[in-house]
Model the fold of this input.
Amino acid sequence: MPSLLAIDLGLRTGFALYGDDGRLRWYRSQHFGSAARLKRGVRPFLDTIGDLAWVVLEGGGDLATVWLRDIERRGIGIQQISAEAWRTQLLYEREQRSGVKAKQHADDLARRVIVWSGAARPTSLRHDAAEAILIGLWGVLAVGWLERMPAEVRRQ
Done:
């Protein structure tokens, strides 16, 4: 089954993998510690995902270049976005007014995606993993794997 990988870029990187049914398969956070370790880690990490069809990457700069180079070599579809792309589609404007509020609302929405998808529930959910989940939700909507936000995930 083809998959979509969402990446919240940074030395501490959030990942979320979605199936072509639009549901979250898994999510995690990984701390690379340095740009050199991230560069060494990209290829082996991507090698673990054999059915990768799309990558949605939030972020830019030198760290993004490392990911983009390896993804392009593999011939995988890629969408590079800013945080505003998914936030404007998935969060209300009032939920984005402060960084603290935006992170809290992102966490709540990511937890609803986890439940709806039947993915393992977290004991704690790091903000980078929560944001990767939402980047991925934006991605599966953008590539057409979901026609609309599932009712169980929509904000109340």
Residues 99-117 form the longest helix (19 residues). DSSP finds five helices and five strands in the chain. Strands lie at 3-8, 12-19, 24-31, 52-58, 77-81.
